[in-house]
Amino acid sequence: MTTDPISPLSDDSARQLAELQTRVEHLERQMRDLCALRQPDEGLWLGQPVMREDRRPGTDVLDQSRPCRQADFDTPWLPYWADRLGERLRYHRKLWEFAFVAQALHERRQLRAGARGLGFGVGREPLAAYFASRGCRITGTDLAPEQAADAGWTATDQHAEGKAALTRPDVCDPEVFEAAVDFRVVDMNAIPDDLTGYDFCWSACALEHLGSLEAGMAFIERSLDTLKPGGFAIHTTELNLTSDVNTLEMGGTVLYRRRDLTALAERLTAAGHIVAPLDFDAGSGPVDSFVDIPPYLPEPHLRLALAGFATTSFGLIIQKAVQP
To answer: What is the pLDDT of residue 58?
Structure first.
């Protein structure tokens, strides 16, 4: 069987395609210029925040589920975690996500010798290595390589193909890591039944990529099945700051509205779980006001634009019901 060769574009079609490409390039340049105009003055963020000498985690910092905000970076606890996790201190929401997860677990006395932790969609995060350095026994999970490639995570170096991707010698002694960390291929939409008995689990902005708003919420509910009674689930995801009506409900990335997270908290509470109260104050600092656009800047980057919506990270703290 033979197939017809692809016909070359006509002169008119080629001209139209070239004009469209030029218009797209102009639009991208205009968007970058607009972004630069809106960027806060360098004096308000360049070289900041500072690595404070009084950095410490504290024990009662995160009593609420809440969004990323600039003020957190100027406290003792977030610089503390940047230092412990081997991350450069900067105004970036991914750093905030890592610090939020670590701080929430620290406050709840989960980072202790012998505690079992389960990470979902771990990519190349430093969390598994750090938790192992604290004496925890960790199972890190991520998509199968072929699924990750199809989703684009491999191309952007955000996927863990195995245990080696989680190593961080600057955070955890290699021998300690080798003994304390395991890796499994896991689809977050189909968590295996044998993953049970953990003291805590976590994910850092992974659940919004499961295909729909409902799929992400179902994952959170299912993640609680992996825990012991009274165990803790710490998850970060996307918060739509633009609208509580319109959003991205389906697709490769979805954006949770205030009403979605409120409804989720009600579902979890009705099932007997404890959700740390929801605080939707996203801050009002100069860096909070800046909405980054593609190609995203390395800093400052606390809010970003997706499909016409401004979004930032939101952290959820959930304790599994003690009694079924």
So the answer is: 87
10-residue mean pLDDT series, the chain (324 residues)? 57 79 67 59 85 92 97 97 97 98 98 98 95 98 62 47 90 97 96 98 96 98 98 98 96 97 98 98 94 87 92 98 84
Report the pLDDT value the prediction gives residue 131, as an integer from 0 to 100. Answer: 98
- 3-class secondary structure for the chain? CCCCCCCCCCHHHHHHHHHHHHHHHHHHHHHHHHHHHHCCCHHHCCCCCCCCCCCCCCCCCCCCEEECCHHHHHCCHHHHHHHHCCCCCCCEHHHHHHHHHHHHHHHCCCCCCCCEEEEECCCCCCHHHHHHHCCCEEEEEECCHHHHHHHCCCCCCCCCCCHHHHCCCCCCCHHHHHHHEEEEECCCCCCCCCCCCEEEEEEECCHHHCEEHHHHHHHHHHHHHHEEEEEEEEEEEEEECCCCCCCCCEECCCCECHHHHHHHHHHHHHCCCEECCECCCCCCCCCCCCEECCCCCCCCECEEEECCEEEEEEEEEEECCCCC
User: Would you list the domain boundaries of the chain?
Assistant: 48-319
Give the integer Cα–Cα distance in Å for 170 and 163: 16
Nearest to 130 by CA among 84, 97, 98, 89: 84
Please name which of 229, 221, 230 lies closest in space to residue 188, comparing C-alpha atoms. 221
Q: What is the reported pTM?
A: 0.86
Q: 48-319 adopts what CATH topology?
A: Rossmann fold (3.40.50)
What pLDDT, on a 0 to 100 scale, did the predictor assign at position 278? 98
Using an 8 Å Cβ cutoff, are 118 and 224 in contact?
Answer: no
Q: Kindly tell me the burial class for residue 87, based on how many C-beta atoms sit within 10 Å of its own C-beta (0-12, 13-18, 19 or more).
A: middle
* Cβ contact 231:319 at 8 Å: yes
pLDDT at 295: 79
